[in-house]
């Protein structure tokens, strides 16, 4: 379940995404919209979709809250803290609305996304502050909803769709000049894990046609984007049913020890086909994907084989475990045991030497005992992840756990267990990263380091942050003058030190993805 974002999971709480830049070329007199994004990367993608729709309907973008005629919050419901952040933000917007000069049209406020889907009635009726409520499948309806709100009425659309993928809407990339991008390949989820609200806020799983995904990736390549992450709640169950000739293809079998709560789904072009096609578009563009589900790595190793073979598919996998206890995994309805999960980890490491692994964990789930917790601690030690996303359990209404289980682990116990998991993860990640000291790593430059203007920051193939001095560098081809690395450049960096979250190093040369692959 998708990107509970927290690189070291230190605080275990979501927050707003960075403010996004306005679109250039705004039209005088056009209504100005201010968008704010909370929660997972899927919401960042949704923000780009919503903005693309509004832009086509005559809206302009502002990054200044006081300039806005419309404020839209793209929200998250995964944990209670995520929703509380929105309620707090609404109190601030209430004051802004009250102070607005009468000469200006009233400020319209909208709640979009998962919280809109989950809490429509409460949002509309609590203090009558919110004008528009739109669920994740209703963004096409935003212009109409905002027109209704302009007449002084509240407007809502939280209908979930079995078909909507926004396939025909090319998102407007909101990171101006950015060198990395996220491409949504599917929406919704059918897994029905007992703790998870996503199937109830984002609906049933449906995949976007491959042709429209390839069109978007080509467009990003033309814009100079150097890294694309394919995005979905469960990317490796992707199946494009848009082409008739592939609708009778047999469903892939699950590996031994894995199960689903739904019947096998025959037909369609699968994730391995998509990954193959995407990776062929631009040999200088890195490809990542998130989040896969452990059950959807079948014994036929086509996806793992592609990762191993293609130089531009990152040797990095997100394998969300959630718990190290088979008993808890069963209560969560994850569809695998601890043993099956570990077997998959060994299979992945055998198939892709040097692979970087990341995972999600929930601590304090219903009925979790101290022994269950220690099994999770031992799984963290045994697998030694490079990156971890760890959270204390937060019960959500509508989920199976809410109806069938008791949230009976005290909050202080959840906090203590979370601290233990974080400490264990960091210890093991520091060891995993220390193994890279002395090695050369290919780094995609993102920009200046936050800590020092004299250093650059980027990520290696395993998605680990790498910091190195910003100095004049030779080109690996040996031609051309010395030059400083720019965002979007690939730099070979020799690692000199490591922590649980970051690698430090010295730059060797500027290079390309293809050249670096050929020299290894």
Task: Describe what you observe in this structure.
This protein has about 525 residues and is α/β, with parallel strands linked by helices. The protein folds into three domains: about 30-155, 3-Layer(aba) Sandwich (Rossmann fold); about 180-435, pyruvate-formate lyase- activating enzyme; about 440-520, Nucleic acid-binding proteins (OB fold (Dihydrolipoamide Acetyltransferase, E2P), Beta Barrel). Helix content is about 30%, strand content about 20%. The chain contains 15 helices and 23 strands. The protein has a six-stranded parallel sheet with strand order 2-1-3-4-5-6, sandwiched between helices. Strands 17-18-19-23-22 form a five-stranded mixed β-barrel. Helix 12 packs parallel to helix 14 (about 410-435).
- CATH architectural group of the largest domain: Alpha-Beta Horseshoe
From the N-terminal CA to the C-terminal CA, the straight-line distance is 34 Å
Shape: globular
Give the number of domains: 3
Structural Rg: 23 Å
Report strand order across the widest sheet. Answer: 2-1-3-4-5-6
Count every helix, treating DSSP H or I runs of 4 or more residues as helices. Answer: 15
Structural class: alpha/beta
Q: Give unreliable regions as ranges.
A: 1-25
Mean pLDDT: 89
Q: Any idea what the CATH superfamily of the largest domain is called?
A: tm_1862 like domain
Q: What is the CATH T-level topology of the largest domain? A: pyruvate-formate lyase- activating enzyme
Q: Helix amount, in percent?
A: 25-40%
What's the CATH class label of the largest domain? Answer: Alpha Beta
Domain TRAM: 434-509
Catalytic activity: N(6)-dimethylallyladenosine(37) in tRNA + (sulfur carrier)-SH + AH2 + 2 S-adenosyl-L-methionine = 2-methylsulfanyl-N(6)-dimethylallyladenosine(37) in tRNA + (sulfur carrier)-H + 5'-deoxyadenosine + L-methionine + A + S-adenosyl-L-homocysteine + 2 H(+)
Domain MTTase N-terminal: 31-151
Family: Belongs to the methylthiotransferase family. MiaB subfamily.
